[in-house]
Amino acid sequence: QVQLVESGGGLVQAGGSLRLSCAASGISFSIYAMGWYRQAPGKQRELVADIISGGITNYADSVKGRFTISRDNAKNTVYLEMNSLKSEDTAVYYCRARARGYVYWGQGTQVTVSS
After folding, report:
1. What is the distance between the alpha carbons of residues 109 and 38, in angstroms, rounded to a whole number?
2. Which of these, 96, 82, 79, 84, lies nearest to 7 by C-alpha position?
3. Cα torsion 52, 68, 4, 110: sign
4. How far is CA 55 from CA 7, 22, 44, 91, in A?
5. Are the C-beta atoms of 6 and 77 separated by less than 8 Å?
6. Which residues does residue 68 pair with via DSSP β-bridges, in sequence order?
7. Each residue of 61-81: b (16+ CB within 10 Å) or e?
8. pLDDT tens for residues 1-19?
9. Residue 106: how many other CB atoms lie within 10 Å
């Protein structure tokens, strides 16, 4: 059974930082492209950042220079370090795993940035 479990969300003031984690089980983690997506109320889910098995990363323009995605294949975990948070970063953040035609999603973790 595949599970992606996010953690690390919460309430933070604008300018602050949070670190999200997504622990995966039931998959061969190292071969999967891992991504963080977010969905704000009334908006579509959007890509925040992703990292392929070789470590190449990709970021949405809105988070470049503020967010960093990384992965630890030994721990089957992907991280999202978020700095200089803005009110517009408020959303539910989801972890996604993708490989060989398979896509899995976590349940999401709420990030709220107060101004």
Report:
1. 9
2. 79
3. negative
4. 22, 16, 27, 25
5. no
6. 81
7. eebeeebbbebeeeebbbbbe
8. 999 999 999 999 999 999 9
9. 21
* Identity of the residue numbered 100: R
Distances in whole angstroms, Cα of residue 13 to Cα of each of 41, 46, 108, 114 = 19, 22, 20, 5
CA distance to 4, 41, 63, 72, per residue, from 30 (Å): 14, 32, 25, 9
Cβ–Cβ under 8 Å, residues 20 and 80? yes
Q: What is the pLDDT of residues 64-111, one digit of tens each?
A: 999 999 999 999 999 999 999 999 999 999 999 999 999 999 999 999
Residue 48's nearest CA partner among 105, 103, 96 is: 96
Distance CA 28, CA 20 (A): 21
Both tokens assigned to 110: 């709420």
